[in-house]
User: What shape does this take?
Amino acid sequence: MSGRIESENKLRDKIEEKLKTLPSIFYDFYNYMEADQKSYATIKHYIEYVADFMDAVVKDNKDEFYKNITVPQIREYLISLRRRVENGREVKNSDSIQATRWSAINTFFNFLVLDDYIEINPMSKTKRPKNKKEKTVVYLEQDEINNIIDRIKKESKTQFVNRDLAIITLGVGTGIRVGALVQINVSDIDFKENTIHVIEKGGKERYLRFGTNARNILSAWLVDRATYFGDADTEALFVSQSRQRLTVEGVRRLMEKYANGINGKHITPHKMRSSAATNLAKAGVDIQTIADILGHSSVTTTQRYAAVLEQNKQQATDALDNLF
Assistant: This one.
């Protein structure tokens, strides 16, 4: 079973369990999103977000709750999303959290209109929250990557040293998305061509190239995998202590462990991808090539990483100018 199918089956099972507790309209919504080829991760979140909206807005007769929703109710709910209570105190939700919730509810009402459950989408009279904060690109510099590698060699258990080295090497060395990284199977690696077959967002299949250093680390991990985890009942390239496929959450914990305290940066699994992009830009690789390597459908996304270089150049110019 492929890594992607294995992960999707688990998510589908969780979705179906959740649907048993919800009005029947959610099952139709689920089928609508699956037919639209949304990922199971997106489907799961959208169902949870719409269910949260339903619980917040409607107190009784939830079977057909969508028929009596008013625009003022929606606006009141959207306002409530601006803040949440965490550890007993009120904190602000990010713009992206608010926007994602809006998108989920809007998709739900669009489905209701398309399938003739209602005539008008009330969300059309609201606006998707804008991300007012410009995202800062956080990435790992060469010395910081070396620092993480040293920590892995010193702190990781013997059976996991080469696994963790392979994860950081592929993450930073290919720019692969962490969701695709954990789905890689041993059979996806082609050592003759130095490529890995991956399935990314939207079911997009492509081949990532890796270099000699990555090849050596991957080979070493495969030896350790056979030695320490030969009885693991999974085709996954990366396995956990419990001999199961390593999860995205597992990679997050690893990054949190090894990158903790690095120059005050908050290093998440996605920062391996931004590190690949930014270091390629610093090496002078053109934008289109970087976009192709990362699998970006538009170079507009990629240009964020090149912009970091312009910021650095300006900072350097200012620093020299301040000498006088």
Remarks:
- The mean pLDDT is 84.
- The first helix runs from residue 3 to 19.
